[in-house]
Amino acid sequence: MLTIENLHANVGDKEILRGINLQVNPGEVHAIMGPNGSGKSTMSNVLVGHPGYTVTEGKVTFLGRDLLSLPAENRSHMGMFLSFQYPVEIPGVSMTNFMRTAINEKRKFLGQEPLSPSDFLKMVKAKRDLVKLDAKFMNRAVNEGFSGGEKKRNEIFQMAMLEQKLSILDETDSGLDIDALRIVAEGVNKLKTPETSVIVITHYQRLLDYIKPDIVHVLYHGRIIKTAGPELALELEERGYDWLIKEYEDSEK
Amino acid sequence: MSEDKDNERVRLISEEKYKYGFTTDVHTDVIERGLTEDTVRLISSKKNEPEWMLEFRLKAYRHWLTMPMPDWAHLDIPEIDFQSISYYADPTAGQTKEGPKSLEEIDPQVMKTFDKLGIPLEERLALSGGVAVDAVMDSVSVKTTFKKTLAEKGIIFCSIGEAVQNHPELVREYLGSVVNYRDNFYAALNSAVFSDGSFVYIPKGVRCPMELSTYFRINAKGTGQFERTLIVADDDSYVSYLEGCTAPMRDENQLHAAIVEIVVLDRAEVKYSTVQNWYPGDENGKGGVYNFVTKRGHLRGVNSKLSWTQVETGSAITWKYPSCILSGDGSQGEFYSVALTNNYQQADTGTKMIHLGKNTKSTIISKGISAGHSQNSYRGLVRVSEKADGARNYSQCDSLLLGDKCGAHTFPYMDIHNDTAVVEHEATTSKISEDQLFYCNQRGIPVEEAIGLIVNGYAKEVLNKLPMEFAVEAQRLLSVSLENTVG
């Protein structure tokens, strides 16, 4: 699904990613953990093509295509999704209008006819139920006046509507109470198929209790310094990152 | 993210595709350039006007000579040589002047022009829901549709030139009664040289069964257009009126100086909507129409209502303040505006709400959108006179900036002479953020579509006030006007 090789990226003149290597296969759930400032959000932003980051070296292949040569919207059309840590508000633009535009742009890219209004409504109904959003929410402006929980559920709703193949959840657990967290996680789990993959970016074990990773990576100072099974997340919860960082720094010397 | 990159991505340049920029090759009788008393007499005689009409024009002309061009607006207006303009251009010259014009008599080129503009002159092709059209090219109305259907209800809908001939008593009573020729420089000029615009009279108790509209087209080179429109809504009547306008792409600046007067009597309601899309000039600010317009409604009747809705995307320079004089007790005035400027366009637009009657109410919603190197100003006056007990006003003026080379300005004036007045004013300025654009991109929506979506969302409150068919057109126009604005 996704292969990242020796990825380096800057913000301005500052190098944030310093050689990331990662392989995500269909059906896998990867967790990326790490202390603040380790480059987790940068990595997700670079993958989805945020213009604020410059890739200086490396290669990323997504579904057999050179990802880095594609503009952000085409990456989305191909099936890449980012659940934003801070979803933005777009005043005056209804969820219906926004979602229909997004879906039809994707269909245009895939050479398909626009979705008929009745099919669209059916789809909305089905996907809404996944994350327990009520009918009125489609008439509201995108994220405007949404609570923290609603915003995150809306992200998962959009992921479902677009039927994306690889979803990156960037700190989706931040600012969520336990009930909202459960709804979001259940939504993600229900969407999971043997053909889709998820990258969960998180500080804490908490979310991983609900979305079970197959593989856990620790990112530090722009590099993946440790990769292991789900037991690693539990160990980090218990012992923190310092021991790992020390181990890594010692090996670098 | 660096500010530079942000600006680069929302950089607004490049020429939008102005799809109305074509010229029609039709034999047009254009009078000699220049403006003297003889010009005024010539126009009046071409229109075969009665003596009182000529007198009206001459008085205005003589007064105009004494007036300086206004310079108080936040506009940089180049010197205009009023002697280098031709004040009358007739694309129907040579055709019969008498009686109602049948379609066969209209030059096929002219027919084709309006077809191309999406304005059908054949009644059977009218937009769904029924829209009657008065089609004006340069100085002359070439066709007014559904006149007969409307006449059955006693509604008069014709060109102002025709009204002077056929309904002189109404024209004499109301022309100049809302906008006096002394009102301002361009009002005086218009009063001296005006040519066709529309005349509407809705009799007592009649609800106009269809939308009425006027489509203004400038075609001839070197000319100015001086439209004059007069709408009278008698007691308990209702009408919704729309105007649209376009012009060819030219290097020269063409002047459009119009007057629209509306009289609203007891309990009558008028909705007046404009989609203004005059040629805005090219991406370097060359060419484009100067749109200097005086629009005003007098709400004379008790509980009368007038609503102005405008979507302004065209013109190199716009100077326009559709206003309401709220004389009738309980009368209500509304102003809903979206003004978009791109490249080197300049707009200074807004409204005046003059509260004279008791319990009068006004609402102002203004949405400015500035892109490129443009300057966009809202200018509004809310005046509550001593006797206007219980007056209420709500004003909301929002500005949206795209890029950092454009300007948005707000000049709200309040002049309150009655302690019972409740006046509210809200203003916001915002930018389309990189985060909003990227959020859309991540969902598969490219930058240009995202800007269109965001701008239309921002303007929605105003667009919702337009009749359906026009709301769709206006949305499209807002998106197109910002095309290629991103680097």
- Provide the number of structural domains of chain B: 1
Tell me how many strands of chain B there are.
22
Count the helices of chain B. How many?
11
Proportion of residues in extended strands of chain B:
25-35%
**Helical content class of chain A:** 25-40%
Shape of chain B: globular
Counting structural domains of chain A, the number is 1
Instruction: Tell me what portion of residues of chain A adopts beta-strand conformation.
Output: 25-35%
CATH architecture of chain A: 3-Layer(aba) Sandwich
CATH superfamily of chain A: P-loop containing nucleotide triphosphate hydrolases
Describe the overall structure.
The complex is a heterodimer of chains A (253) and B (487). Chain A is 37% helix and 28% strand. Chain A contains 8 helices and 12 strands. Chain A has one domain: Rossmann fold (3-Layer(aba) Sandwich). The mean pLDDT of chain A is 93. In chain A, the strands form 3 sheets. A 6-stranded mixed sheet of chain A has the order 6-9-10-3-11-12, sandwiched between helices. A 4-stranded antiparallel sheet of chain A has the order 2-1-4-5, with helices on one face. With 253 residues, chain A is of the alpha/beta class. With 487 residues, chain B is α/β, with parallel strands linked by helices. Chain B has one domain. Chain B is built from 11 helices and 22 strands. In chain B, strands 4-3-7-9-11-13-16-18-20-22 form a 10-stranded mixed sheet, with helices on one face. In chain B, helix 3 packs antiparallel against helix 8 and helix 10 packs antiparallel against helix 11. The longest helix of chain B is centred in the last third of the chain and has 17 residues. The two termini of chain B are 16 Å apart. The N terminus of chain B is likely disordered. Chains A and B meet through helix 2, strand 7 and helix 3 of A and helix 9 and helix 10 of B.
